[in-house]
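Residues pack. Consider this:
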Amino acid sequence: MIEMRTRFLSKLTNGEVEEYLSRNDIIYVPVGVTETHGAMPLDAETVVAEALALKMAEETDGLVLHNLPYFFAGGTNCAKGTVQMSVKDGMNYLYQIAKSLLRQGFRRQVYVTCHAPAYLTVGPVIRDFFEETKCPILYIDMVKAADNKDLSFDFMETFNDICIGAYKVLGRLEDVPLNVAESNSVTYDVQSMLQGMAKNPANKLGKFALPSAAVGSYFDRPADHMATPLLTTPQEREKHADIGVKAIEEFIDHIDVKGIVETLREVDEYTQNDSLVKYDCIK
């Protein structure tokens, strides 16, 4: 693996990007969200996506295009800190980014999320981009992919640790605050969160499609979105972070990132040399 000063595209010089593109064409795009997240910062799920993307880039000699925190949040508009972007506007913005990256030479693009409704934005971009450019790009949704792997941890039970661990991966662990008081936005009681969510009749309809796709609804209070662990000391925070880092690393190992990017190349070659050659109507 070639050592680089940084894997983050925006922190490189233009010359460094050109040198990279002379040998490789992989870029990871973590798509985030800014929304209420219990006692953790509003960018928690953005940070998880960025940490995953960084680990993947380190495994495969890739780059990371980060700083994409404003997309469709979902039902958390009840929180003053949530920044809501429409699905349509988020799709259009991300689509233009994908086209720009392809023009610059990044043929293998991997979009990474860890936010349940993110598929509403990213999925259509992946498909429409392929239809227009005939270049296959990939979407990895940790929420979905974790269900398909024989992992030693339960994703939902470990989710808060994963969030805290992601801050550590990015060197930002001190951004996770300590001794946050319970409030309308923060609960440390999972049962209280579940009871609050149960009051929303939309939950009866959510089973008929993927999350956030069956019916539109909002949370009644910010605290119903996420119960988080009570962190009172740096040592407690470090303990949760270490659990989360191990979970992230195990997930990365299990999905076989090197195999994924090689398969993405194979899909591209198959498309160009087989599908488009045989079926003139889809060119």
Residues 234-255 form the longest helix (22 residues). Residues 9-266 form a domain with the Rossmann fold fold (CATH 3.40.50.10310).
